[in-house]
Design goal:
This protein is α+β, with helices and mostly antiparallel strands. It contains 1 helix and 5 strands, in the order αβββββ. The radius of gyration is 22 Å and the shape is elongated.
Length: about 100
């Protein structure tokens, strides 16, 4: 019986180890539109992302982009329809999003 214990234990633990090493699913991507906000107030202006999928630069579902310089977006491309993964970021003025992944549609 002792001679079977170790091989059986190996057969049971090997699948668990392999499943733990598998690639995890990425967070779901949200459809969005990136547009330019031409206003020049202290809490607005610059690139914004709109999650209502309509190209507008203010209102419900619209967030300033905290890391817009990292995204290499040319304003001539706007409005830009994208799929994004994002997180909210604290800001004293307007709702702000940090885009962690961006795919053009």
């Amino acid at each position: 019986m002792k001679s079977l214990t170790l091989p059986l234990l190996g057969l049971l633990t090997a699948p668990m180890l392999l499943m733990g090493a598998c690639k995890k699913d990425e967070p779901a991507l949200s459809n969005a539109v990136i547009v330019y906000d031409p206003r020049m107030c202290p809490c607005c202006g610059g690139l914004v992302v709109d999650f209502t999928n309509t190209p507008k630069f203010a209102g419900v579902g619209t967030y300033s982009i905290a890391n817009s310089a990292d995204l290499n977006i040319d304003v001539k491309e706007l409005p830009l329809y994208v799929r994004v993964s994002w997180v909210t970021e604290p800001n004293g003025c307007s709702p702000t999003a940090r885009i962690t992944k961006l795919e053009r549609r």
